[in-house]
Specification:
By secondary structure, this protein is α+β, with helices and mostly antiparallel strands. The chain is built from 7 helices and 4 strands; from the N terminus they run βααβααβααβα. A 4-stranded antiparallel sheet has the order 2-3-1-4, sandwiched between helices. It is globular and about 35 Å long. The chain binds adenosine-3',5'-cyclic-monophosphate. The site of adenosine-3',5'-cyclic-monophosphate has 9 residues, from loops. Homotetramer. InterPro entries: NDK-like_dom (IPR034907), NDK-like_dom_sf (IPR036850), Nucleoside_diP_kinase (IPR001564), Nucleoside_diP_kinase_AS (IPR023005).
């Protein structure tokens, strides 16, 4: 079934010049890019996006990492794109992410305690609708 998902190319992806590589993987898989914008996230966007992680030990570092430079927000569309993009991304922890995945091939974690893993993808239809509303209110 056709779905939309919210993808973030996190600041480490932008800083390392990996936008093209990651977008190429999305497009060659066959997903369509419906919207794309680069900007530095506001504190409001990050606290809304990561509300479920508030209070966790890595939360302050997470917000600092995600606000440290420009990121690229993307709405991607396609059959089962929510699970499909998460397969492309690989496991959250880059050390455990399988080779062939974005994180497995490209991510390191040299700046713990925050896992810097290049990309975010919505984890459910509910999350996708909520997150698209945060980053692209005009699409809500
Ligand atoms: P993301 O999919 O954007 O959702 C929350 C982010 O927090 C996650 O990717 C990682 O960047 C980071 N994260 C998740 N779990 C941990 C953890 N256990 N320790 C450190 N960072 C984490």
């Amino acid at each position: 079934t056709a779905q939309r998902t919210l993808v973030l190319l996190k600041p480490d992806a932008v800083q390392r010049g990996l936008r093209g590589e990651i977008i190429r993987r999305l497009e060659t898989k066959g997903y369509e890019i419906v919207a794309l914008a680069q900007r530095t996230a506001t504190a409001e966007e990050l606290s809304a996006h990561y509300a479920e992680h508030e209070g966790k030990p890595f939360y302050p570092g997470l917000v600092e990492y995600m606000g440290a430079g420009p990121l690229v927000a993307i709405v991607a569309e396609g059959d089962s794109v929510i699970a499909g993009f998460r397969s492309l991304a690989g496991a959250t922890n880059p050390t455990e992410a399988a080779p062939g995945t974005i994180r497995g091939d490209l991510a390191r974690e040299w700046d713990l305690p925050v896992i810097q893993n290049l990309v975010h993808g919505s984890d459910s239809e509910e999350s996708a609708a909520r997150e698209i509303g945060i980053w692209f209110p005009e699409l809500g």
